[in-house]
Specification:
- This protein has 157 residues and is α+β, with helices and mostly antiparallel strands.
- It has a domain at 1-51.
- Helices cover 51% and strands 15% of the residues.
- Strands 1-2 form a two-stranded antiparallel ribbon. Strands 3-4 form a two-stranded antiparallel sheet.
Length: 157
């Protein structure tokens, strides 16, 4: 598909260029939806406002406070403190990974690094490309791999 192709939006009925529609990358073929980006955005905003109001009605501050009190009563404050301590103690690697990914994404946003568009291992294009770190002490040294190759690397370790 080229960028000059025209398509009609099912929601608003407007005739627009193909790049104004949501692009959905798939392993075998990339396609575009039949609803334009603007209509999708408006629909998501409308849903969010409805759900936000429902949530606010259901979980008032008093209800939230009561749910927390019941949980502490059922499990005990010591259980919660122990669980939190153990979770953070055992997940140091997760914290390090999160910090490294944050640095990488900041470098991409600021233009220090350009994200890969094809897999460095198999050469596939038009698929989801993920970053792979061999060493988390070097946050900006990454390999750009497709989901399949990235999964194979992690399952072989």
């Amino acid at each position: 598909m080229n960028d000059t192709e025209l398509r009609t939006c099912k929601k608003c009925g407007g005739v627009k260029e193909i790049n104004e529609f949501v692009r959905v990358p798939r392993p075998k073929k990339t396609y575009y939806t039949y609803t334009c980006k603007k209509c999708v955005s408006e629909q998501a905003k409308a849903k969010w406002f409805v759900r936000r109001e429902e949530y606010r009605k259901k979980y008032t501050p008093e209800v939230t406070k009561e749910l927390r009190r019941r949980f502490k009563e059922r499990h005990g404050a010591e259980y919660i403190n122990t669980y939190q301590r153990e979770y953070y103690k055992n997940n140091i690697a997760r914290r390090i990974r999160a910090r490294v990914y944050g640095r990488l994404h900041y470098a991409i946003r600021t233009g220090k690094i350009i994200a890969g568009i094809k897999c460095e291992q198999c050469g596939k294009e038009h698929c989801k490309i993920e970053s792979h770190h061999e060493d988390y002490n070097k946050p900006l040294e990454v390999k750009w791999l497709c989901t399949e190759c990235h999964g194979l690397i992690h399952t072989s370790k």
